[in-house]
Specification:
CATH class of the largest domain: Alpha Beta
Shape: globular
Largest sheet: 7 strands, mixed
Structural class: alpha/beta
Strand order of the largest sheet: 1-7-6-5-4-2-3
Number of strands: 12
Distance between the termini: 58 Å
Strand content: 5-15%
Order of helices and strands: HHHEHEHEEHEHEEHHEHEHEEEH
Mean pLDDT: 96
Low-confidence stretches: none
Number of domains: 2
CATH architecture of the largest domain: 3-Layer(aba) Sandwich
Number of helices: 12
CATH superfamily of the largest domain: Type I PLP-dependent aspartate aminotransferase-like (Major domain)
Bound molecules: pyridoxal-5'-phosphate
Oligomer: single chain
CATH topology of the largest domain: Aspartate Aminotransferase, domain 2
Length: 395
């Protein structure tokens, strides 16, 4: 479908070719390891074949990856069996001994574990930078710097990063444009709300587990890029033997069809709850870059066309931890759990998860509670949260 059409129209038609499949719109699920050759010329690769071995790609993976590449306007995309696997594969594509790589201090916890525990063993110097450093990043760049990683907003504390300023600083420092790779985890913004490749990033990674699949039943990841970056992703995926299962890839492609509707509903519910919390006397701070009261709002308005249902708020920690545990455990709709992007609302406490950070977070001190607003009725969700706050206050 032509690129000039609105992305919402394209979402409904990406990777469809019904007339090559008996008129059936959705591409079939190909489950295979073996792909037969009709001759040894084919088997040896003397004749180029579109697919050679299940792990290396099938029409099912090509349909999903092609759709993601298109919505990011990238020429290449790889898929992986989880968001974390996509992130680690993408990082390994640009890793060599002697490199210096920089990561925001608000990095997603499992990504932080990988870069802290695995990259140094490969001879990489890993440095964390304050998430709101923006063009001050220039002072951190060394001659050996090869990669700057961005996650905007950051996990749990939701600081935005000034991606264009970081890109500009990196390009100023290194005249050969490709020598510092800018990689962005765009799971929060998605291709619909945060066009990170158009803003200058080289590689985008996303946990398709969240909004793309959208029903809390699939683990899937993507990494997309163009040119040499795209080729490096594919080569690393092949070398590592990374491949997502065909049923999950099919579910990912199907999820894209309704992504806009689910994302917008979750975003609307999230903003509704965040505004209510902002006005509640018990709440010390609301960490949501889409609120005009957020210090990141100018960046949000400039670079994002929307938000999502994931944010956090701060409660006073002069009341006992057990009181907060109990108030949340007694909630009716919100369930205690990690992950997000599905249909159901989730809540968790996260103050104990940010203790390993190098820089003090800039929000008010207190209990950090993360909320994922799902697709339920927003007044029911607020009633549940308000009751929880009352129970906590009265404990
Ligand atoms: C920002 C972010 N990136 C990546 C991931 C990893 O995704 P997955 O759970 O599919 O490995 C998560 C999961 O919570 C996440 O929140």
């Amino acid at each position: 479908m032509v690129k000039q059409k609105h992305i919402d129209t394209r979402l409904g038609h990406l990777s469809l070719d019904p007339m090559s499949n008996y008129g059936i719109p959705n591409p079939p699920i190909y489950r295979t390891s073996t792909i037969l050759s009709s001759s040894f010329a084919e088997y040896r690769g003397d004749v180029t074949m579109p697919y050679t071995y299940g792990r290396n790609g099938t029409p099912t993976s090509a349909a999903f990856e092609g759709a993601i590449a298109e919505i990011y306007d990238a020429d290449s995309c790889i898929s992986a069996p989880s968001g974390l696997a996509a992130i680690t594969t993408a990082l390994l594509a640009f890793t060599k001994a002697g490199d210096h790589m920089m990561f925001p201090d608000s990095l997603y916890g499992s990504s932080r574990r990988f870069v802290s525990q695995m990259l140094p063993a490969m001879g990489v110097a890993v440095e964390f930078y304050p998430p709101r450093i923006n063009d001050g990043i220039e002072a951190y760049i060394k001659p050996e710097t090869t990669l700057i990683y961005v996650e905007s907003p950051g996990s749990l504390t939701f600081e935005l990063q000034d991606l264009p300023a970081i890109v500009a600083a990196a390009r100023r420092q290194k005249v050969t444009a490709t020598s510092i790779t800018i990689m962005v985890d765009n799971t929060w913004g998605t291709a619909l709300h945060y066009p990170v490749l158009s803003l200058g990033a080289d590689v985008v990674v996303e946990a398709a587990t969240k909004y793309i699949c959208g029903h809390s039943d699939i683990s899937l990841g993507i990494a997309a890029a163009s040119g040499a970056h795209g080729k490096a992703l594919r080569k690393t995926m092949t070398n590592l033997g990374i491949c997502a299962g065909p049923d999950d890839l099919y579910a990912g492609l199907r999820g894209l069809r309704t992504l806009r509707l689910r994302l917008e509903k979750s975003e609307e519910n999230g903003l509704y709850l965040a505004n209510k919390l902002n006005a509640h006397p018990m709440v010390l701070d609301v960490l949501h870059p889409g609120l005009p009261t957020s210090p990141d709002y100018p960046i949000y308005e400039r670079d994002f066309s929307g938000s999502c249902g994931l944010f956090a708020f701060i409660l006073p920690n002069n009341l006992p931890q057990e009181a907060l545990d109990k108030a949340i455990e007694e909630m009716d709709i919100f369930a205690i759990g990690a992950s997000w992007g599905g249909y159901e609302s989730l809540i968790k406490q996260a103050h104990h998860e940010i203790t390993q950070r190098n820089f003090a977070p800039s929000h008010e001190d207190g209990y950090l509670v993360r909320v994922y607003a799902g697709l339920e009725n927003k007044d029911d969700l607020w009633a549940d949260l308000e009751r929880m706050l009352t129970t906590f206050a009265e404990s």
